[in-house]
Specification:
The protein is an all-beta fold and 328 residues long. It has one domain (7-29, 45-94, 110-327): Beta-galactosidase, Chain A, domain 5. The protein has strands at residues 7-9, 24-26, 41-45, 58-63, 67-75, 112-117, 121-126, 139-141, 144-146, 151-156, 163-169, 174-177, 193-196, 200-201, 205-206, 209-215, 220-225, 230-239, 242-250, 260-264, 266-268, 271-272, 276-280, 288-291, 298-300, 302-306, 319-327. Strands 9-8-16-17-18-19-5-27-26-23-24 form an 11-stranded mixed β-sheet, with no helix packed on it. The chain has a 10-stranded antiparallel β-sheet with strand order 6-7-10-11-12-13-20-4-3-25, with no helix packed on it. A two-stranded antiparallel ribbon has the order 1-2. Residues 308-328 are annotated as: Disordered.
């Protein structure tokens, strides 16, 4: 599928599920205009080794008191082009916290409703029985506000049907992003998660949101943080094998807390959601690559969390790149 081109239109949204609101919009790869000069940021590795493929042992934070915005790119690994079998089932063989091949909650299907829809996208909300961080975060679209959502999904409509490519959890600030699948497959897997905003620590890292608003006209999310300040997350590209979002901050405390984080898993190069940290120290410099658990803290103009060989875990999941860091 070709990248789509931004426009506005009069085609009304269709009601469904919780509610649907109307405004036609398509998204292209043009991206948001950058403001501020390019900067480097501190990349800090807090990963540990594990034998468990279901443990988020990879943890990185990005920090800079001067950050004004940046871009996140999800891109399918090079090997996906020749992928024969995608493996996404959980693997508890190296874990000591239980689990089995049937550890899916008895095939529980959580309540899901449509928040907004047009000819090209669908925004859905999901409610689970409980969540590790039971906070109330209002999620709004137009005049609709929902305070009980655990998961928000953005889907792209394709000739083969809607494809989910972006999700986030309002209660702890975790996001996932992926590109559209190749024509021969129905979907590709999610892999690594990322956090946007002042990253705090509890039983696991999190970002505390005060509220979230989706803007159909720009296919973007406005995040209000509990600690103060705002971020805008704009979908700037969605295509086969690649999706991008642009992040812009205003009034966010980035002097005392990281402005972004990455969570993932790594057991070995062939059993990992991300296996290599690829860093470019300055714009235009040659990249260096090292295993994610062995990387030492460094300055970076861009950093990508990648895989070079197919993994037995979430084989089709994308690499995640953080780049185009710019000052306030």
């Amino acid at each position: 599928m070709a990248a789509v081109v931004a426009r506005n239109g009069r085609n009304g949204g269709r009601r469904g599920g919780l509610v649907g609101l109307a405004l036609a919009v398509l998204v292209g790869f043009g991206g948001a205009a950058t403001a501020g000069e390019p900067i480097t940021v501190d990349v800090h590795n807090r990963s540990v080794r594990t034998a468990c493929a279901e443990e988020d042992n990879v943890y990185y934070t990005l920090s800079s008191p001067d950050i004004g915005g940046f871009t996140i790119e999800a891109r399918s690994p090079d090997y996906v082009a020749g992928l024969v079998r995608d493996r996404t089932a959980p693997d508890f063989s190296g874990c000591n916290f239980g689990g089995s091949s049937g550890a899916d909650g008895g095939h529980y299907t959580p309540p899901t409703g449509t928040l907004w829809e047009n000819d090209d996208f669908v925004l859905k909300g999901v409610v689970y029985p409980d969540f590790w961080r039971p906070t109330e975060v209002p999620v709004s679209v137009g005049k609709l506000t929902q305070k009980f959502l655990h998961l928000v999904q953005l889907w792209r409509k394709t000739p083969a049907g809607p494809v989910e490519f972006l999700v986030f959890y309002p209660q702890d600030g975790y996001w996932r992003l992926k590109g559209l699948p190749p024509a021969r497959t129905r979907e590709v897997a999610y892999g690594s998660s990322f956090l946007i905003g002042p990253v705090e620590e509890s039983t696991r890292p999190y970002v505390a949101y005060k509220s979230v608003r989706f803007e159909p006209a720009t296919t973007s999310f406005t995040l209000e943080f509990a600690r103060g300040g705002t971020a805008w997350i704009e979908v700037t590209g969605v295509d086969v094998g690649r999706s991008t979002v642009a992040v812009t901050f205003d009034g966010v405390d980035t002097a005392n807390l990281p402005f972004a984080g990455l969570r993932s898993m790594y057991v070995a190069p062939g059993n990992a959601d991300t296996a290599e940290t690829v860093v470019r120290a300055t714009p235009g410099a040659a990249p260096t690559s090292i295993a994610v658990v062995d990387f030492k803290d460094a300055k970076a103009a861009d950093v990508t969390f990648a895989r070079s060989v197919p993994s037995s875990h979430n084989t089709s999941a994308p690499d995640l790149g953080f780049r185009d860091f710019r000052g306030r």
